[in-house]
Amino acid sequence: MLFKARSAAVYGIDAHIIDVEVDFSGVVMDKEIFNTVGLPDAAVRESRDRVRSAIKNSGFDIPPTRITINLAPADIKKEGSGFDLPIAIGILGAYGALHNKDISNFLLVGELGLDGTLRAVQGMLPIAIAAREKGIKNLVIPASNAREAAVVEGVDVYPVHSLSEVRELLNSASLGAITATPLRVEAASLLDELEHFPYDFKDVRGQQVAKRALEVAAAGGHNILMIGPPGSGKTMLAKRLPSILAPLRFEEALETTKIHSVAGVLDSDRGLVTHRPFRSPHHTISDAGLIGGGMIPRPGEVSLAHNGLLFLDELPEFPRNVLEVLRQPLEDGTVTISRAAMSLSFPARFMLAAAMNPCPCGYFNDKSRECMCTPPMIQRYVSKVSGPLLDRIDIHIEVPAVQYKELRGGSAAEGSAEIRTRVLAARERQHARFALPRHGEPERTKGSPRAASKPIFSNSQMNTQQIRTHCELNSDAERLLERAMQQQGLSARAHDRILKVARTIADLGGEQDIAVKHIAEAIQYRTLDRSYWA
Ligand SMILES: Nc1ncnc2c1ncn2[C@@H]1O[C@H](COP(=O)(O)OP(=O)(O)O)[C@@H](O)[C@H]1O
Ligand SMILES: [Mg+2]
To answer: Residue 19: what are its φ and ψ, rounded to 5°?
Structure first.
Protein backbone atom coordinates (compact mmCIF):
# COMPACT_ATOMS: atom_id res chain seq x y z
CA MET A 1 0.00 0.00 0.00
CA LEU A 2 1.27 3.45 -0.86
CA PHE A 3 1.47 5.63 2.24
CA LYS A 4 2.20 9.34 2.46
CA ALA A 5 3.72 11.34 5.31
CA ARG A 6 4.51 15.02 5.27
CA SER A 7 7.73 16.67 6.29
CA ALA A 8 9.83 19.74 5.46
CA ALA A 9 13.25 20.70 4.13
CA VAL A 10 15.15 23.82 5.15
CA TYR A 11 16.64 25.91 2.39
CA GLY A 12 18.56 28.96 3.59
CA ILE A 13 16.38 30.28 6.38
CA ASP A 14 13.10 29.10 4.88
CA ALA A 15 11.49 25.70 4.81
CA HIS A 16 9.52 23.88 2.13
CA ILE A 17 6.95 21.17 2.66
CA ILE A 18 8.09 17.77 1.36
CA ASP A 19 5.88 14.76 0.79
CA VAL A 20 7.42 11.46 1.75
CA GLU A 21 5.80 8.62 -0.18
CA VAL A 22 6.51 5.02 0.72
CA ASP A 23 5.60 1.92 -1.23
CA PHE A 24 6.82 -1.67 -1.23
CA SER A 25 6.71 -4.66 -3.50
CA GLY A 26 4.88 -7.75 -2.30
CA VAL A 27 7.81 -10.10 -2.86
CA VAL A 28 9.51 -11.13 0.38
CA MET A 29 13.29 -11.38 0.03
CA ASP A 30 16.33 -12.24 2.19
CA LYS A 31 16.90 -8.64 3.10
CA GLU A 32 14.93 -5.47 2.49
CA ILE A 33 16.17 -3.05 -0.18
CA PHE A 34 15.62 0.66 0.12
CA ASN A 35 15.26 2.79 -2.99
CA THR A 36 15.23 6.52 -2.34
CA VAL A 37 14.32 8.88 -5.15
CA GLY A 38 13.77 12.62 -5.34
CA LEU A 39 17.24 14.17 -4.99
CA PRO A 40 18.09 12.93 -1.53
CA ASP A 41 21.54 13.88 -0.34
CA ALA A 42 23.98 11.64 1.46
CA ALA A 43 22.44 12.35 4.84
CA VAL A 44 19.03 11.21 3.66
CA ARG A 45 20.53 8.06 2.20
CA GLU A 46 22.28 7.36 5.49
CA SER A 47 18.97 7.54 7.24
CA ARG A 48 17.92 4.12 5.92
CA ASP A 49 20.15 2.36 8.46
CA ARG A 50 18.87 4.40 11.37
CA VAL A 51 15.29 3.95 10.23
CA ARG A 52 15.69 0.20 9.83
CA SER A 53 17.14 -0.21 13.36
CA ALA A 54 14.72 2.24 14.93
CA ILE A 55 11.73 0.33 13.52
CA LYS A 56 13.11 -3.01 14.65
CA ASN A 57 14.08 -1.77 18.12
CA SER A 58 10.67 -0.19 18.60
CA GLY A 59 9.19 -3.67 18.37
CA PHE A 60 7.86 -3.77 14.81
CA ASP A 61 8.51 -6.71 12.60
CA ILE A 62 8.71 -5.71 8.96
CA PRO A 63 9.08 -8.50 6.40
CA PRO A 64 12.02 -7.79 4.03
CA THR A 65 10.90 -6.51 0.62
CA ARG A 66 11.85 -3.79 -1.82
CA ILE A 67 10.83 -0.44 -0.30
CA THR A 68 10.63 2.66 -2.46
CA ILE A 69 10.79 6.08 -0.83
CA ASN A 70 10.05 9.16 -2.89
CA LEU A 71 10.69 12.67 -1.61
CA ALA A 72 8.62 15.19 -3.56
CA PRO A 73 8.88 17.69 -5.10
CA ALA A 74 12.10 16.40 -6.61
CA ASP A 75 13.54 19.80 -7.49
CA ILE A 76 14.03 20.93 -3.90
CA LYS A 77 17.39 20.08 -2.42
CA LYS A 78 16.95 17.97 0.68
CA GLU A 79 19.52 17.51 3.39
CA GLY A 80 19.75 16.55 6.99
CA SER A 81 18.45 13.84 9.21
CA GLY A 82 14.96 15.21 9.81
CA PHE A 83 13.40 12.82 7.29
CA ASP A 84 14.07 9.79 9.51
CA LEU A 85 10.77 10.15 11.30
CA PRO A 86 8.46 10.65 8.28
CA ILE A 87 10.25 7.81 6.45
CA ALA A 88 9.82 5.46 9.41
CA ILE A 89 6.16 6.43 9.85
CA GLY A 90 5.66 6.08 6.09
CA ILE A 91 7.04 2.54 6.23
CA LEU A 92 4.83 1.63 9.19
CA GLY A 93 1.85 3.10 7.34
CA ALA A 94 2.66 1.24 4.13
CA TYR A 95 2.83 -2.04 6.04
CA GLY A 96 -0.46 -1.33 7.77
CA ALA A 97 1.07 -0.86 11.21
CA LEU A 98 -0.91 2.37 11.69
CA HIS A 99 -4.66 2.77 12.08
CA ASN A 100 -4.55 5.98 10.08
CA LYS A 101 -5.37 6.16 6.39
CA ASP A 102 -4.52 9.80 5.93
CA ILE A 103 -2.05 11.83 7.99
CA SER A 104 -1.81 14.82 5.69
CA ASN A 105 -2.74 17.10 8.58
CA PHE A 106 0.47 16.14 10.40
CA LEU A 107 3.97 17.38 9.73
CA LEU A 108 6.64 14.99 10.97
CA VAL A 109 10.29 15.92 11.44
CA GLY A 110 13.03 14.35 13.52
CA GLU A 111 16.20 12.30 13.55
CA LEU A 112 15.95 8.75 14.88
CA GLY A 113 18.45 7.04 17.12
CA LEU A 114 19.00 3.33 16.52
CA ASP A 115 16.82 2.57 19.55
CA GLY A 116 13.91 4.59 18.17
CA THR A 117 14.39 7.74 20.29
CA LEU A 118 14.02 11.11 18.59
CA ARG A 119 16.71 13.74 18.31
CA ALA A 120 16.59 17.44 17.52
CA VAL A 121 17.22 18.81 14.04
CA GLN A 122 18.12 22.30 12.86
CA GLY A 123 15.71 24.87 11.49
CA MET A 124 12.54 23.91 13.33
CA LEU A 125 11.25 27.48 13.53
CA PRO A 126 11.18 27.99 9.73
CA ILE A 127 9.60 24.53 9.45
CA ALA A 128 6.79 25.55 11.81
CA ILE A 129 6.27 28.75 9.83
CA ALA A 130 6.05 26.74 6.58
CA ALA A 131 3.52 24.36 8.16
CA ARG A 132 1.33 27.29 9.16
CA GLU A 133 1.56 28.82 5.69
CA LYS A 134 0.51 25.51 4.11
CA GLY A 135 -2.30 25.05 6.61
CA ILE A 136 -0.87 21.89 8.19
CA LYS A 137 -2.29 22.02 11.68
CA ASN A 138 -0.24 19.51 13.67
CA LEU A 139 3.50 19.37 14.14
CA VAL A 140 4.99 16.21 15.60
CA ILE A 141 8.62 16.88 16.43
CA PRO A 142 11.39 15.99 18.90
CA ALA A 143 10.71 17.41 22.36
CA SER A 144 14.08 19.16 22.43
CA ASN A 145 13.04 21.23 19.38
CA ALA A 146 9.50 21.89 20.50
CA ARG A 147 9.82 25.33 22.06
CA GLU A 148 11.21 27.04 19.00
CA ALA A 149 8.32 25.67 16.90
CA ALA A 150 5.74 26.53 19.54
CA VAL A 151 6.41 30.26 19.29
CA VAL A 152 4.54 30.13 15.98
CA GLU A 153 0.85 30.75 16.48
CA GLY A 154 -1.73 28.76 14.56
CA VAL A 155 -0.05 25.34 14.67
CA ASP A 156 -0.27 22.69 17.38
CA VAL A 157 3.13 21.41 18.40
CA TYR A 158 3.35 17.91 19.89
CA PRO A 159 6.68 17.20 21.53
CA VAL A 160 7.56 13.51 21.23
CA HIS A 161 10.44 11.36 22.42
CA SER A 162 10.28 8.15 20.38
CA LEU A 163 8.94 6.46 17.31
CA SER A 164 6.44 4.41 19.35
CA GLU A 165 5.12 7.56 20.97
CA VAL A 166 4.52 9.09 17.52
CA ARG A 167 2.65 5.97 16.45
CA GLU A 168 0.43 6.11 19.55
CA LEU A 169 -0.27 9.78 18.95
CA LEU A 170 -1.25 9.17 15.33
CA ASN A 171 -3.40 6.20 16.29
CA SER A 172 -5.22 8.27 18.87
CA ALA A 173 -5.86 10.86 16.16
CA SER A 174 -7.38 8.15 13.96
CA LEU A 175 -9.88 7.49 16.75
CA GLY A 176 -10.97 11.12 16.57
CA ALA A 177 -9.10 12.59 19.55
CA ILE A 178 -5.42 13.17 20.08
CA THR A 179 -4.47 12.05 23.56
CA ALA A 180 -1.37 14.26 23.86
CA THR A 181 -1.58 17.98 24.66
CA PRO A 182 0.14 20.49 22.42
CA LEU A 183 2.88 22.69 23.86
CA ARG A 184 1.95 26.34 24.30
CA VAL A 185 4.48 29.16 24.44
CA GLU A 186 3.31 32.73 24.85
CA ALA A 187 5.99 34.05 22.56
CA ALA A 188 5.20 37.73 22.73
CA SER A 189 5.27 37.67 26.51
CA LEU A 190 8.78 36.21 26.52
CA LEU A 191 9.92 39.56 25.21
CA ASP A 192 8.25 41.41 28.05
CA GLU A 193 10.33 39.66 30.68
CA LEU A 194 12.53 42.03 32.57
CA GLU A 195 15.75 42.23 30.66
CA HIS A 196 18.87 41.44 32.49
CA PHE A 197 22.34 42.41 31.32
CA PRO A 198 25.55 41.15 32.84
CA TYR A 199 27.41 44.45 32.36
CA ASP A 200 26.41 48.01 33.25
CA PHE A 201 27.84 51.38 32.26
CA LYS A 202 27.93 52.43 35.89
CA ASP A 203 31.13 50.37 36.23
CA VAL A 204 32.96 52.57 33.73
CA ARG A 205 34.73 55.55 35.30
CA GLY A 206 35.21 58.74 33.30
CA GLN A 207 35.19 58.19 29.52
CA GLN A 208 32.38 60.70 29.06
CA VAL A 209 33.17 61.23 25.38
CA ALA A 210 33.19 57.53 24.60
CA LYS A 211 29.97 56.92 26.52
CA ARG A 212 28.26 59.74 24.74
CA ALA A 213 29.37 58.39 21.36
CA LEU A 214 28.10 54.92 22.25
CA GLU A 215 24.77 56.43 23.28
CA VAL A 216 24.51 58.18 19.90
CA ALA A 217 25.47 54.95 18.13
CA ALA A 218 22.85 52.97 20.03
CA ALA A 219 20.18 55.60 19.46
CA GLY A 220 20.59 55.72 15.68
CA GLY A 221 21.94 52.22 15.01
CA HIS A 222 25.26 53.67 13.83
CA ASN A 223 28.44 51.68 13.42
CA ILE A 224 31.22 52.76 15.75
CA LEU A 225 35.00 52.39 15.92
CA MET A 226 36.97 52.96 19.13
CA ILE A 227 40.71 53.63 19.00
CA GLY A 228 42.90 53.77 22.10
CA PRO A 229 45.82 52.28 24.01
CA PRO A 230 45.62 48.87 25.68
CA GLY A 231 43.71 48.89 28.94
CA SER A 232 41.82 52.10 28.24
CA GLY A 233 38.51 50.26 28.51
CA LYS A 234 37.48 49.70 24.87
CA THR A 235 36.44 46.11 25.39
CA MET A 236 34.80 47.04 28.66
CA LEU A 237 32.74 49.73 26.92
CA ALA A 238 31.70 47.51 24.01
CA LYS A 239 30.45 44.78 26.34
CA ARG A 240 28.09 47.31 27.87
CA LEU A 241 26.59 48.41 24.58
CA PRO A 242 23.83 45.72 24.61
CA SER A 243 22.54 47.14 27.89
CA ILE A 244 21.48 50.40 26.23
CA LEU A 245 19.99 49.05 23.00
CA ALA A 246 16.25 49.15 22.35
CA PRO A 247 14.50 45.83 23.07
CA LEU A 248 13.79 43.45 20.20
CA ARG A 249 10.40 43.76 18.58
CA PHE A 250 8.56 40.49 18.06
CA GLU A 251 9.05 40.38 14.27
CA GLU A 252 12.75 41.06 14.75
CA ALA A 253 12.94 38.29 17.34
CA LEU A 254 11.34 35.84 14.91
CA GLU A 255 13.76 36.80 12.11
CA THR A 256 16.80 36.40 14.32
CA THR A 257 15.49 33.16 15.83
CA LYS A 258 15.03 31.70 12.35
CA ILE A 259 18.70 32.26 11.63
CA HIS A 260 19.81 30.84 14.98
CA SER A 261 17.48 27.90 14.45
CA VAL A 262 18.95 27.07 11.04
CA ALA A 263 22.49 27.45 12.40
CA GLY A 264 21.66 25.13 15.28
CA VAL A 265 22.77 27.57 17.98
CA LEU A 266 19.39 28.20 19.55
CA ASP A 267 19.01 27.77 23.30
CA SER A 268 16.42 24.95 23.43
CA ASP A 269 15.04 26.12 26.80
CA ARG A 270 13.93 29.43 25.41
CA GLY A 271 12.94 28.73 21.83
CA LEU A 272 13.03 32.41 20.97
CA VAL A 273 15.95 34.84 20.82
CA THR A 274 14.68 37.48 23.23
CA HIS A 275 17.67 39.83 23.40
CA ARG A 276 19.52 41.56 20.62
CA PRO A 277 22.38 39.21 19.83
CA PHE A 278 25.90 40.25 20.80
CA ARG A 279 28.42 38.37 18.68
CA SER A 280 32.14 38.90 19.22
CA PRO A 281 34.07 36.48 17.01
CA HIS A 282 37.81 36.17 17.62
CA HIS A 283 40.16 37.54 14.96
CA THR A 284 41.24 34.03 14.00
CA ILE A 285 37.81 33.47 12.40
CA SER A 286 37.69 32.45 8.73
CA ASP A 287 35.77 34.43 6.15
CA ALA A 288 33.30 31.52 5.93
CA GLY A 289 32.84 31.68 9.70
CA LEU A 290 32.17 35.38 9.56
CA ILE A 291 30.04 35.57 6.44
CA GLY A 292 28.63 32.05 6.28
CA GLY A 293 29.49 29.10 4.09
CA GLY A 294 30.00 25.40 3.84
CA MET A 295 28.89 22.82 1.29
CA ILE A 296 25.31 23.50 2.27
CA PRO A 297 25.63 27.19 3.19
CA ARG A 298 25.10 27.97 6.85
CA PRO A 299 24.76 31.45 8.34
CA GLY A 300 27.94 33.07 9.68
CA GLU A 301 28.55 35.53 12.50
CA VAL A 302 27.20 38.50 10.54
CA SER A 303 23.85 36.72 10.23
CA LEU A 304 23.84 35.45 13.80
CA ALA A 305 24.24 39.13 14.73
CA HIS A 306 21.18 40.07 12.65
CA ASN A 307 19.15 42.73 14.50
CA GLY A 308 21.91 42.96 17.07
CA LEU A 309 25.52 43.79 17.55
CA LEU A 310 28.68 42.49 15.91
CA PHE A 311 31.74 43.39 17.96
CA LEU A 312 35.15 43.04 16.33
CA ASP A 313 37.82 43.56 18.96
CA GLU A 314 41.42 44.22 17.81
CA LEU A 315 40.16 45.05 14.34
CA PRO A 316 43.54 45.15 12.49
CA GLU A 317 44.30 41.63 13.71
CA PHE A 318 41.57 40.24 11.47
CA PRO A 319 42.93 39.07 8.10
CA ARG A 320 42.27 41.63 5.44
CA ASN A 321 40.18 39.32 3.25
CA VAL A 322 37.96 38.61 6.25
CA LEU A 323 37.39 42.32 6.81
CA GLU A 324 36.69 42.97 3.15
CA VAL A 325 33.81 40.50 3.05
CA LEU A 326 32.06 42.70 5.61
CA ARG A 327 31.37 45.33 2.99
CA GLN A 328 28.34 43.70 1.38
CA PRO A 329 26.38 43.12 4.61
CA LEU A 330 27.32 46.59 5.89
CA GLU A 331 25.90 48.06 2.71
CA ASP A 332 22.85 45.84 2.00
CA GLY A 333 22.00 44.13 5.27
CA THR A 334 22.26 40.72 3.59
CA VAL A 335 24.97 38.28 2.55
CA THR A 336 24.95 36.13 -0.53
CA ILE A 337 26.86 32.89 -0.44
CA SER A 338 27.55 31.27 -3.78
CA ARG A 339 28.50 27.63 -4.03
CA ALA A 340 28.60 25.28 -6.98
CA ALA A 341 25.42 23.63 -5.72
CA MET A 342 23.45 26.77 -4.96
CA SER A 343 23.47 30.45 -4.10
CA LEU A 344 21.75 31.57 -0.93
CA SER A 345 21.10 34.85 0.83
CA PHE A 346 20.93 35.32 4.57
CA PRO A 347 19.82 38.47 6.38
CA ALA A 348 22.71 40.30 8.06
CA ARG A 349 21.62 43.69 9.34
CA PHE A 350 23.67 44.40 12.41
CA MET A 351 25.29 47.27 14.19
CA LEU A 352 29.07 47.04 14.00
CA ALA A 353 31.20 48.01 16.98
CA ALA A 354 34.95 47.72 16.53
CA ALA A 355 37.96 48.44 18.70
CA MET A 356 41.65 48.80 17.92
CA ASN A 357 44.96 50.04 19.22
CA PRO A 358 46.37 53.00 17.30
CA CYS A 359 49.66 51.23 16.47
CA PRO A 360 51.49 47.93 17.02
CA CYS A 361 52.81 48.89 20.48
CA GLY A 362 49.52 50.54 21.33
CA TYR A 363 50.74 53.85 22.74
CA PHE A 364 50.77 56.24 19.79
CA ASN A 365 49.24 59.54 21.00
CA ASP A 366 49.19 58.31 24.60
CA LYS A 367 49.94 60.92 27.26
CA SER A 368 51.80 58.76 29.72
CA ARG A 369 53.79 56.28 27.67
CA GLU A 370 56.08 56.64 24.77
CA CYS A 371 55.23 55.00 21.48
CA MET A 372 57.91 52.66 20.13
CA CYS A 373 56.61 52.52 16.58
CA THR A 374 57.97 54.24 13.47
CA PRO A 375 55.54 56.12 11.21
CA PRO A 376 55.66 53.39 8.51
CA MET A 377 54.86 50.78 11.16
CA ILE A 378 51.86 52.78 12.30
CA GLN A 379 50.80 53.33 8.72
CA ARG A 380 51.02 49.65 7.89
CA TYR A 381 49.10 48.76 11.02
CA VAL A 382 46.13 51.06 10.56
CA SER A 383 45.94 50.50 6.81
CA LYS A 384 44.84 46.93 7.50
CA VAL A 385 41.50 48.61 8.02
CA SER A 386 40.77 49.77 4.49
CA GLY A 387 39.31 53.11 3.50
CA PRO A 388 36.05 51.64 2.18
CA LEU A 389 35.49 49.75 5.42
CA LEU A 390 36.32 52.81 7.49
CA ASP A 391 33.92 54.83 5.39
CA ARG A 392 31.06 52.55 6.38
CA ILE A 393 31.58 53.27 10.06
CA ASP A 394 29.61 56.38 11.02
CA ILE A 395 31.32 57.17 14.31
CA HIS A 396 35.05 57.11 15.07
CA ILE A 397 36.25 57.98 18.54
CA GLU A 398 39.41 58.02 20.55
CA VAL A 399 39.34 56.25 23.90
CA PRO A 400 42.32 57.55 25.90
CA ALA A 401 43.55 55.87 29.07
CA VAL A 402 41.67 57.10 32.14
CA GLN A 403 43.68 59.14 34.56
CA TYR A 404 44.26 57.64 37.98
CA LYS A 405 42.34 60.48 39.63
CA GLU A 406 39.27 59.73 37.57
CA LEU A 407 39.52 56.02 38.12
CA ARG A 408 39.50 56.58 41.88
CA GLY A 409 37.00 59.44 41.76
CA GLY A 410 34.12 59.32 44.21
CA SER A 411 31.10 60.28 42.15
CA ALA A 412 29.19 57.34 40.71
CA ALA A 413 28.87 57.08 36.95
CA GLU A 414 25.53 57.08 35.18
CA GLY A 415 24.01 53.62 34.83
CA SER A 416 22.82 51.85 31.70
CA ALA A 417 19.13 52.17 32.60
CA GLU A 418 19.24 55.97 32.47
CA ILE A 419 21.16 56.04 29.21
CA ARG A 420 18.77 53.52 27.74
CA THR A 421 15.76 55.71 28.57
CA ARG A 422 17.19 58.44 26.35
CA VAL A 423 18.06 55.94 23.61
CA LEU A 424 14.48 54.64 23.63
CA ALA A 425 13.04 58.14 23.37
CA ALA A 426 15.25 58.84 20.36
CA ARG A 427 14.16 55.51 18.82
CA GLU A 428 10.52 56.50 19.29
CA ARG A 429 11.13 59.65 17.30
CA GLN A 430 12.71 57.60 14.51
CA HIS A 431 9.84 55.13 14.46
CA ALA A 432 7.36 57.95 14.13
CA ARG A 433 9.45 59.45 11.33
CA PHE A 434 9.81 56.25 9.33
CA ALA A 435 6.44 54.67 10.07
CA LEU A 436 4.65 53.60 6.93
CA PRO A 437 1.58 55.73 6.31
CA ARG A 438 -1.42 53.95 7.79
CA HIS A 439 -4.23 52.75 5.62
CA GLY A 440 -6.43 55.61 4.50
CA GLU A 441 -3.94 58.25 5.58
CA PRO A 442 -2.82 60.60 2.85
CA GLU A 443 0.80 60.24 1.78
CA ARG A 444 2.95 63.02 3.20
CA THR A 445 4.19 65.61 0.76
CA LYS A 446 7.76 66.64 -0.17
CA GLY A 447 8.24 63.71 -2.51
CA SER A 448 8.29 61.30 0.38
CA PRO A 449 10.24 58.15 -0.47
CA ARG A 450 8.23 56.04 1.95
CA ALA A 451 6.02 54.27 -0.50
CA ALA A 452 8.82 53.21 -2.80
CA SER A 453 11.52 51.99 -0.43
CA LYS A 454 11.57 49.13 2.03
CA PRO A 455 10.74 49.94 5.64
CA ILE A 456 13.54 51.30 7.80
CA PHE A 457 13.69 51.73 11.55
CA SER A 458 16.69 53.89 12.35
CA ASN A 459 18.54 56.93 11.08
CA SER A 460 21.53 54.83 10.08
CA GLN A 461 19.40 53.05 7.48
CA MET A 462 18.36 56.17 5.57
CA ASN A 463 19.15 56.20 1.86
CA THR A 464 20.28 59.33 0.05
CA GLN A 465 16.79 60.45 -0.69
CA GLN A 466 15.60 59.92 2.86
CA ILE A 467 18.61 61.89 4.09
CA ARG A 468 17.58 64.75 1.84
CA THR A 469 14.04 64.64 3.22
CA HIS A 470 14.81 64.26 6.92
CA CYS A 471 18.14 66.06 7.38
CA GLU A 472 17.53 69.58 6.19
CA LEU A 473 20.01 72.11 7.52
CA ASN A 474 19.62 75.79 8.32
CA SER A 475 22.15 78.11 6.71
CA ASP A 476 24.53 78.18 9.70
CA ALA A 477 24.68 74.42 9.94
CA GLU A 478 25.06 74.23 6.16
CA ARG A 479 28.04 76.60 6.26
CA LEU A 480 29.73 74.68 9.07
CA LEU A 481 29.39 71.41 7.20
CA GLU A 482 30.62 72.92 3.97
CA ARG A 483 33.71 74.32 5.66
CA ALA A 484 34.48 71.02 7.35
CA MET A 485 34.12 69.18 4.06
CA GLN A 486 36.58 71.51 2.34
CA GLN A 487 39.13 71.79 5.12
CA GLN A 488 39.23 68.12 5.94
CA GLY A 489 38.67 66.75 2.47
CA LEU A 490 35.74 64.56 3.55
CA SER A 491 34.18 62.24 0.99
CA ALA A 492 30.59 62.35 -0.20
CA ARG A 493 29.95 59.24 1.81
CA ALA A 494 31.33 60.90 4.95
CA HIS A 495 29.02 63.84 4.24
CA ASP A 496 25.95 61.59 4.29
CA ARG A 497 27.15 59.86 7.44
CA ILE A 498 27.58 63.17 9.22
CA LEU A 499 24.01 64.14 8.35
CA LYS A 500 22.61 60.86 9.64
CA VAL A 501 24.55 61.08 12.89
CA ALA A 502 23.52 64.72 13.32
CA ARG A 503 19.90 63.63 12.86
CA THR A 504 20.35 61.12 15.69
CA ILE A 505 22.00 63.69 17.96
CA ALA A 506 19.06 66.04 17.41
CA ASP A 507 16.66 63.16 18.14
CA LEU A 508 18.48 62.46 21.40
CA GLY A 509 18.05 66.12 22.30
CA GLY A 510 14.36 65.88 21.44
CA GLU A 511 14.76 68.49 18.73
CA GLN A 512 12.96 68.65 15.42
CA ASP A 513 15.57 70.64 13.51
CA ILE A 514 19.23 69.86 13.09
CA ALA A 515 21.21 72.72 14.60
CA VAL A 516 24.85 73.82 14.39
CA LYS A 517 25.76 72.04 17.62
CA HIS A 518 24.41 68.74 16.27
CA ILE A 519 26.42 69.04 13.07
CA ALA A 520 29.50 70.07 15.04
CA GLU A 521 29.32 66.98 17.22
CA ALA A 522 28.72 64.72 14.24
CA ILE A 523 31.75 66.17 12.43
CA GLN A 524 33.92 65.37 15.45
CA TYR A 525 33.03 61.71 15.05
CA ARG A 526 34.44 61.78 11.51
CA THR A 527 37.74 63.56 12.06
CA LEU A 528 39.76 60.89 13.78
CA ASP A 529 40.53 58.99 10.61
CA ARG A 530 42.38 62.10 9.36
CA SER A 531 45.01 61.80 12.09
CA TYR A 532 45.59 58.07 11.63
CA TRP A 533 44.77 57.20 8.04
CA ALA A 534 45.72 60.45 6.27
N1 LIG B 1 37.16 53.75 32.63
C2 LIG B 1 37.35 52.66 33.38
N3 LIG B 1 36.65 52.50 34.53
C4 LIG B 1 36.85 51.40 35.28
N5 LIG B 1 37.70 50.40 34.96
C6 LIG B 1 38.42 50.50 33.84
C7 LIG B 1 38.27 51.63 32.98
N8 LIG B 1 39.09 51.46 31.93
C9 LIG B 1 39.71 50.28 32.11
N10 LIG B 1 39.31 49.70 33.26
C11 LIG B 1 39.79 48.41 33.77
O12 LIG B 1 40.82 47.95 32.93
C13 LIG B 1 40.49 46.68 32.39
C14 LIG B 1 40.99 46.55 30.97
O15 LIG B 1 40.16 47.27 30.10
P16 LIG B 1 39.83 46.77 28.63
O17 LIG B 1 38.45 47.12 28.35
O18 LIG B 1 40.21 45.36 28.48
O19 LIG B 1 40.82 47.69 27.80
P20 LIG B 1 41.12 47.66 26.25
O21 LIG B 1 40.12 46.80 25.61
O22 LIG B 1 41.02 49.08 25.84
O23 LIG B 1 42.51 47.13 26.12
C24 LIG B 1 39.01 46.58 32.52
O25 LIG B 1 38.57 45.26 32.63
C26 LIG B 1 38.72 47.36 33.77
O27 LIG B 1 38.89 46.55 34.91
MG1 LIG C 1 40.48 45.09 24.53
So the answer is: -95, 130
